[in-house]
Structure to design on (676 residues):
């Protein structure tokens, strides 16, 4: 196979590696597979390209436009996986590992595409939270908005997931509306470059949206300012070095760090060897140690088990780990491939030796293990290595040394409180898992350890079949962790998009808030409509357009009839004396649902027309009881419009029901689908 010349894509042009490029070896054969090194970096031109070409193009699109672009991109990549699989074997990854990296990255892109359309507006302004009333009379209000940062997102990725690592950062960045410069880790840059080429070749992204630096980034950090953001994944040492750059500190450049972590897995005290939870723990610990040859930031590093079950755990785990088939990653039977490089293997062995100063090696002798289908002396192979630390309270190295490979240490605990103390000795981790079916144990561990962890994963026989696994960060859920794990937070749905936007408090009159946010705010002027809005198509409705219905009196007969008809005979509607004794009611009152039904009767347009369906109510509040003899009227205002497809869009109406005195009896948001 020819050596791959890994190129960089800078300011819209591809550049071959320069003469100083570094050779990268295959994890399996040790042969040089690629050359990586950026020939020259013209930081000013790159940043101008991102900020002046990519940024404006992305920002001219709505959140939904960008979400649709991500969906199309995910579909495109899904159809182009095979070349990525083929190339990734050289990183030592097996077919199962590809599913996490390649399919996992595409899956994350799909999730952001879907969340973008469901949870963000088809607009340019993201509204963050409700309107805040800042004045007694309601003429001065506040609300938070979020807008894409005007700079560039610099993504610095770790070697272990060249595709997932790129896409899990790129999807929220593009959804937010920011251009990105991607800097993959050198040792797997040839896979990242191929994935990047596919993204570019798809033709789906606007010009200037992405750039790629294969190799060093030169003095790029010195050019960043407060509109830019760095999202880093890698070791704590590198993060510290980068964060401490003068320009980053001086420019208050946001820095999201996902670092290494000494993740714990706790076997609950209820999980005796004959219980399913014990078996799940052994199975998942084995998987965590061997998937990606243990090169996973979330991998279990410390197995915290009841001291009384130590022997059983050691026996079961050693048996499982001893049977793991290590070797040629292209062979379907291989359970664990190679580490990324021989130099990384040396690093892992060095750290395993450090752990061995406080723990006894139970299994996995790096000098004596078999490798199937590959040459052990040429590739970066290791066996899974399990250690046992007999005194985890006195130990420090086992809680602080990340051997980024197939290495874990098992340690015993006395009671659940002690297990929590040991888990927290990681000093801030990405994830801890707990194998228990006991709610009390789960709760105690959650209360004691949550503040030290970005994610807590519980598994037992009830969730096992569908559980996504200890080691899988999910785009829906927060990924990151406090302290040693970097203090960063990625993903977590729209939370992960928010990093790439600036949140701004907007204060002003209701009209001003409506104009800025594009969503009608109560108290704003009503827009004048032309006839009944239910007779007009989606495009002919204006934000703020309002109808006022006629009044309808509520009679005692209505209430009796509704009670009989529906079966809702709650005493407050039928028993005058009991109702009057209730602190909320003056006497018998109308059913809330009766009011909603009458309101619909007041505003609905009966003949077939552009309104296709009523799809629900949001934020319903009954604020004032309605007594027999009261007369109610409804007021409907177009609050927000969202295109759903070529045929129809969603109209969100703000509905207020008032009585004859003008008091608000109920308020809600009504959702309708309206033909375009
Ligand atoms: P690393 O050596 O810290 O490198 C991480 C990234 O930083 C690479 O792209 C690297 O590029 C780059 N880098 C290093 N020095 C730099 C500098 N002076 N300027 C700009 N960029 C620089 O980490 P790694 O070996 O790739 O990854 C393994 C580590 O990452 C482990 O500790 C693991 O726990 C952690 N990790 C964490 C997560 C998470 O989500 N929390 C995920 C995966 C991995 P080069 O390769 O070109 O040096």
């Amino acid at each position: 196979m020819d050596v791959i010349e890994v190129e960089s894509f800078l300011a819209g042009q591809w550049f071959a590696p320069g003469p100083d490029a570094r050779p990268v070896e295959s994890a399996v054969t040790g042969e040089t597979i690629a050359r990586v090194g950026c020939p020259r970096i013209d930081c000013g031109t790159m940043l101008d390209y991102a900020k002046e070409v990519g940024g404006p193009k992305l920002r001219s699109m709505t959140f939904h436009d960008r979400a649709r672009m991500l969906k199309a991109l995910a579909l495109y990549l899904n159809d182009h996986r095979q070349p990525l699989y083929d190339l990734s074997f050289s990183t030592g990854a097996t077919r199962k590992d590809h599913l996490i990296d390649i399919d996992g990255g595409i899956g994350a892109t799909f999730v952001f595409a879907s969340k973008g359309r469901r949870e963000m507006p088809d607009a340019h302004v993201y509204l963050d939270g409700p309107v805040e009333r800042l004045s007694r009379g309601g003429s001065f209000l506040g609300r938070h908005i979020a807008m894409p940062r005007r700079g560039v997102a610099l993504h610095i990725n770790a070697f272990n997931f060249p595709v997932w690592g790129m896409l899990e950062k790129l999807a929220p960045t593009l959804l937010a509306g920011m251009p990105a410069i991607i800097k993959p880790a050198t040792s797997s840059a040839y896979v990242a470059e191929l994935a990047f080429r596919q993204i570019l070749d798809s033709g789906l992204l606007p010009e200037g949206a992405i750039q790629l630096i294969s190799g060093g980034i030169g003095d790029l950090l010195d050019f960043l300012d407060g509109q830019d953001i760095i999202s880093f994944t890698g070791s704590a040492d590198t993060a510290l070095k980068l964060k401490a750059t003068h320009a980053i500190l001086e420019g208050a450049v946001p820095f999201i760090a996902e670092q290494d972590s000494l993740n714990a897995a706790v076997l609950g005290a209820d999980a005796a060897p004959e219980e399913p939870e014990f078996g799940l723990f052994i199975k998942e610990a084995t998987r965590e140690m061997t998937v990606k040859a243990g090169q996973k930031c979330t991998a279990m590093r410390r197995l915290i088990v009841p001291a009384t079950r130590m022997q059983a755990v050691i026996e079961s785990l050693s048996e499982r780990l001893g049977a793991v088939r290590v070797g040629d990653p292209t062979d379907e039977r291989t359970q664990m491939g190679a580490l990324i490089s021989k130099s990384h293997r040396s690093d892992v062995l060095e750290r395993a030796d450090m752990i061995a100063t406080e723990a006894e090696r139970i299994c996995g002798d790096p000098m004596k293990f078999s490798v199937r289908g590959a040459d052990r002396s040429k590739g970066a192979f290791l066996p899974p290595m399990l250690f046992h630390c007999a005194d985890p309270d006195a130990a420090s190295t086992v809680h602080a040394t990340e051997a980024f490979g197939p290495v874990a240490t098992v340690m015993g605990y006395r009671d659940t409180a002690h297990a929590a103390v040991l888990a927290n000795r990681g000093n801030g981790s990405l994830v801890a898992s707990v194998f228990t079916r006991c709610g009390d144990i789960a709760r105690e561990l959650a209360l004691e350890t949550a503040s030290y962890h970005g994610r807590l994963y519980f598994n037992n026989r009830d969730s096992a079949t569908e559980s996504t696994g200890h080691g899988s960060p999910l785009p829906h859920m927060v990924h990151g962790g406090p302290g040693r794990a970097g203090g960063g937070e990625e993903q977590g749905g729209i939370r992960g998009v928010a990093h790439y936007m600036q949140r701004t408090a907007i204060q002003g009159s209701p009209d001003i808030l409506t104009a800025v946010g594009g969503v009608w705010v109560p108290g704003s002027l009503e827009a004048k409509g032309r006839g009944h809005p239910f007779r007009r198509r989606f495009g002919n409705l204006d934000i703020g357009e309002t109808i006022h219905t006629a009044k309808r009196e509520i009679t005692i007969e209505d209430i009796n009839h509704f009670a009989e008809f529906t079966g809702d005979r709650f005493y407050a509607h039928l028993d005058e004396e009991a109702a009057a004794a209730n602190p909320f009611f003056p006497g018998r009152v109308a059913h809330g649902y009766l009011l909603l039904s009458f309101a619909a009767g007041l505003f609905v347009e009966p003949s077939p027309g552009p309104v296709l369906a009523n799809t629900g109510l949001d934020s319903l509040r009954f604020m004032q009881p309605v007594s027999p003899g009261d007369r109610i009227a409804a007021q409907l205002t177009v609050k927000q419009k969202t295109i759903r497809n070529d045929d129809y869009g969603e109209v969100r109406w703000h509905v207020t029901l008032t009585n004859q005195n003008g008091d608000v009896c109920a308020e809600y948001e009504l959702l309708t689908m309206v033909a375009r």
